[in-house]
Amino acid sequence: MKIALAQLNYHVGNFESNTNKIIQHIREAKQNGADLVVFAELCVCGYPARDFLEFNEFITLCDEAAKTIATECHDIACIIGLPTPNNNPEGKDLNNSAYFIENGTVKAVVNKALLPNYDIFDEYRYFEPSTQFSCIDFKGKRIALTICEDLWNTIENPLYITRPMDTLIKQKPDVMINIAASPFAYNHDEERIEILKDNAIRYNLPLFYVNHVGAQTELIFDGGSLIFDNTGVLLDELPYFKEALTYYTLNDDASVSFEHASTIKAAHQSDIEQIHEGLILGIKDYFYKSGFKQAILGLSGGIDSAVVCALAAEALGPENVMAVLLPSRFSSDHSIKDAEDLVKNLGCKSETVAIAKITESFESALSPQFKNLPFNIAEENLQSRSRAVVLMAMCNKFGYILLNTSNKSEAAVGYGTLYGDMCGGISVIGDVFKTQVFELAREINKDREIIPENTIVKPPSAELRPDQKDTDSLPEYDILDAILYEYILNRRSSAEIIKLGFEEAVVRKVLRLVNISEHKRYQTPPILRVSPKAFGMGRRMPIVGKYLS
Amino acid sequence: MKIALAQLNYHVGNFESNTNKIIQHIREAKQNGADLVVFAELCVCGYPARDFLEFNEFITLCDEAAKTIATECHDIACIIGLPTPNNNPEGKDLNNSAYFIENGTVKAVVNKALLPNYDIFDEYRYFEPSTQFSCIDFKGKRIALTICEDLWNTIENPLYITRPMDTLIKQKPDVMINIAASPFAYNHDEERIEILKDNAIRYNLPLFYVNHVGAQTELIFDGGSLIFDNTGVLLDELPYFKEALTYYTLNDDASVSFEHASTIKAAHQSDIEQIHEGLILGIKDYFYKSGFKQAILGLSGGIDSAVVCALAAEALGPENVMAVLLPSRFSSDHSIKDAEDLVKNLGCKSETVAIAKITESFESALSPQFKNLPFNIAEENLQSRSRAVVLMAMCNKFGYILLNTSNKSEAAVGYGTLYGDMCGGISVIGDVFKTQVFELAREINKDREIIPENTIVKPPSAELRPDQKDTDSLPEYDILDAILYEYILNRRSSAEIIKLGFEEAVVRKVLRLVNISEHKRYQTPPILRVSPKAFGMGRRMPIVGKYLS
């Protein structure tokens, strides 16, 4: 049996483009002699569809798309994913389903049993878990078809009380197929390989796994679909961050063969290489899928905006990136020069709008209220907010989308101005710690100097008052990021973090800063997610709560 | 058996204050001869604790608080709610539990079975549902203790496939007790009474129901705890939006008697009266629980900011409200006068900061870029954003929290400026449609004219260009709100809404405006929730998705 795996970039709610893409790949697979072509979980509507799923019209359109797709399935079978109404009057309205379509009709329906509802996942919000499991017979082979999380209930750390394959294996299947929507995080590819390999070994079956690729607002899907033999050997791996259609033959002895050269990488990409590729895809799809072309950002001469500018130029083309220098009276000469050098290196567009007179107009308008009170955070924020207003005015006038340039360390400790540098349509590096931003700059400069060396080596500064340095108010970034990692990703208490060897006063200060910044993060743009715990939908903290640390 | 019901205002994560409050009420109930005092669901940690629940330290602190509370339970028993570790190694880490504490020790643990995971609820994110149900014997009575949603699985529309009381009833209980965390919406009190009454009738048992009161950021809990006899007659109702401790005797013939006058209202409050009280509590608790006292807002002379200002003055005291007039060249004389009249009527503080020179400084700084392009939304937004920067500067200088004054109709169609009038720490009327804002103004003026009549009767205008009226770009508010209601609350498609009799072009325009504003709403402050479907956590729409309507 010849099986085609289609790893594609869908668009949530775009039935026309998703359906066309699926049909086009069915046709191509048929031309290439495939018996079966496998698409990803919920491919018909895109993932995550969120509360679109609560609209009856949306479910009807999924059904209609499936019917259109079914008419293409002659002399080839296909597996697609879509939400379907739950036939049981008890329980939630929907199932997360896979259709096995053959001879123009739906031959079998498989419903997902294990519904992830942690981190960014909300599947139990919409779907009723399945409790019945049947294999599908096709061309003399018996297929155990499951959906994503259904294979993820590990023996060591079982998140659910059932395991669908434990039922399916009793029906003596010949092969496992798993369709997935497994979002990217820099550590996720290895975890995915490990867990799927365990399944192949445990059930002694070859395994075909098909994932999404492409970004849906903040969620990036990295592809990397996988093929294992029945001993758990990884036979092939589809490309990361790219669409692909590949073919495999499932032989009668349960072995899997294929004609193309296996694309398994000898060494996996480093975290930073993955983050780099992921962010490029994230920017590209955010603009493409929202119908915009042109990005704008404020360029300070610092490393964060430099990295975002370089990523945007790579993703959208330098001709579609407008970098705006917004010097104030505190901007240093080297900052302006560094920013100009970057613009030159990238070949992107640039403008300069000085903000000194703007902040003066605010200070003058507010002088009856502020009287002779000393310069403080109010005046610092005036600069940051004046810049944001300039950038947003340019967005409104010319149709740009503003890129947010805050990094994860800043976002964590609230080292940023709400309605100032925290503005933007999408946050590009809001899930990248400052120490990783430096690595990313080096990665971007791998082949030639794009980001000026001075931008990378100078001490970070917000330049909102004379001679300000980030380290005036924050610990060194390697210490800060290590503490943040323990608190945010590992959810350790202050006592536990102190026990790891960090200075008590520093730990308490950092955790306090994180806690009192929840209200700021609530109002920030969506953040491209590259880590297992990003700010946004995946981390839901109270705002008006009493924090412990 | 004498039962005390404690309907209290907790604070998420504030173990010290929650524990003290619980202990103080145990003591008071004991002094008044109660055998048992019942507190609300998850009262120990507050509700909703969100991802606090993912911190081990948080769960440990819950356990320690319960131990402290237990030491008070001699000669009186109590029921408290808290998260506890799931003893089963399979499934999620926690249970949503109720402790029955007697003689200083936990005599019984009940775990919640039906975990709401719709709208604002995320309980399946944290908790494993219970599948085992046992009654609790106490002083010759058998108690069927359940937690909130456990009684909410209706016969007509069953959201879950089990019903805990169907198991518990077989053990022949004498009484039902349900502890809850059931947030306010203007239609929710009637629904609650109906569903609980059905339970009393179906199981032929008296029912004691204890709810939270108080607000946790955007969620308001209205109290209104309930007592039914075994025929479903509502015997008593605790006050709405207030703390209370009341006593009942469960007699041997299963009847319930009590000494105080029943506080059931002859007629329930109107929606607007409830919204009014709910918003007052929401503002109060937002400030009190976050440790702030002083609110600031921009006063335009229009009805939205007038209503918010009046509510804030009522909630915080007029001396804690700073109203700032921010006239531009497009502000009409009557607007300034209306704003001044309101300030006078309320007795709140006020300042005037003219923004004309500020917007001119932006226009001048941007003139090399904008050249002679015509005045458009860029310049309109400059005004709104300049006002926000002034207000935020005053927040930074003086420690105010900015109140957002957008209404739900505006928020829905994106008739507001991101980083402009959409700023604020909390949105007061973001869940109140414009037509309801008018009703709210009348309600506020019930006893005397607080909001100037002219503010209520003049045609709404954003005053961002000469002679602008809201109806220049939007349909009349009664039409707009009716369409929004069908789309947002009833999730109807454009075709369905048109079929209800609305003009096709208008429906398409409104729905399109809602859809293209998702990115704006993503970055708005938390919105005090008063309806069954508010923007925020309860409505999770894709941003970069293709919308249907």
TrEMBL record, chains A, B:
GO BP of this protein: NAD+ biosynthetic process
Residues that hold deamido-NAD(+) according to the record: N381, E410, K520
Catalytic activity, reaction form: deamido-NAD(+) + L-glutamine + ATP + H2O = L-glutamate + AMP + diphosphate + NAD(+) + H(+)
Pathway the protein acts in: Cofactor biosynthesis; NAD(+) biosynthesis; NAD(+) from deamido-NAD(+) (L-Gln route): step 1/1
Residues in CN hydrolase domain copies: 1-252
Superkingdom field: Bacteria
Annotated InterPro entries: C-N_Hydrolase (IPR003010), C-N_Hydrolase_sf (IPR036526), Gln-dep_NAD_synthase (IPR014445), NAD/GMP_synthase (IPR022310), NAD_synthase (IPR003694), Nitrilase/CN_hydratase_CS (IPR000132), Rossmann-like_a/b/a_fold (IPR014729)
Residues holding L-glutamine: Y118, S182
Enzyme class, spelled out: ligase
Enzyme Commission number, as recorded: 6.3.5.1
Protein family (similarity comment): In the C-terminal section; belongs to the NAD synthetase family. Belongs to the NAD synthetase family.
PANTHER family according to UniProt: GLUTAMINE-DEPENDENT NAD(+) SYNTHETASE, NH 3 /GLUTAMINE-DEPENDENT NAD + SYNTHETASE
Full protein name: Glutamine-dependent NAD(+) synthetase
Organism encoding this protein: Mucilaginibacter gilvus
